[in-house]
Amino acid sequence: MASHVSVDFKASDYWHPKFWPMWVTLGILRTVALFPYPVQISLGALLGKVLQTLSPSRQRVADINLQLCFPEKSITERNNIKNASFQNLGIALLEMSMCWWWPENRLSSLVEIRGREHIETVLDSGRGVILLTGHFTSLEIGGRLFTLSMPLQAMYRTQKNRLFDSYLYTRRKSYLENAISRKNTRQMIRGIKQLIPTWYAPDQNFPNEKNVFVPFMGVQTATISAGSRIAQSSGGAMLPFYPERKKDGSGYIIWVEPPLEDFPSGDDVQDATAVNASIEKFVRQNPEQYMWIHKRFKTRPPGEPAIYP
User: Fold this and answer.
1) With 90 as the cut, is the pLDDT of residue 240 above it?
2) What are the residue boundaries of the structural domains of the chain, listed by start?
3) What is d(CA 158, CA 171) in angstroms, rounded to the nearest whole number?
């Protein structure tokens, strides 16, 4: 198995008993890949319900996030979003089997890209493309579907389970142009300059990186300013890019919008505000497809109390 883990970790180490549960999980995913798409969606929704029941702490995080972001909605409305979000999370986990083992002709029948011309216009002008997106539950399948028609590079975060990390990296490498460590921004910029569309999702809490506080869903939110520097260094344009899981269960729409105007502007606050506004637009359109279990608002402005217990 190809891997990016350290050389002191041998292939034989993957058969250690501590990895057996992960091998079982991978075997289940491989089996699920054989099922028809509607069956996978139904099983995924059921899995999401089970995960929700087993994850009271994540439910509390989702409750806090939804209360902050949708104070105008009733508790019932927020609970409906939360429940649907967990179901979509379960679907996303089973969609990995589609990403890894489905042939391209089976995948291509499920996707339509709306706004591809915006990417082509930027590339034809000689500029690179940075695909600005958020942590929606359709992010993994969205990236895989995009690669059916255009190359794509993306950054990855190392997973705690070494077997899963190696397997995930190997599979992503099979369809991505580049799978880049989050620590290797230079490689990412090189790819943008080489006109490889680049997946970029900055909507998580990164306390150890340079942040500015700007609104997101009505909340002052620590937002990394790296997007401005990446766009400046690469000369790339920032295009909103959002995969949507169709509500009727028939497949996916990948939405691509024209580049953010005046980006980078030279003002980190202005740029971060534009980035968050773009992500927020799609969160409000499909709140049930967003990952509400992340502690997005953990880092607070000086003097503000902690949001999460």
Assistant:
1) yes
2) 15-289
3) 14
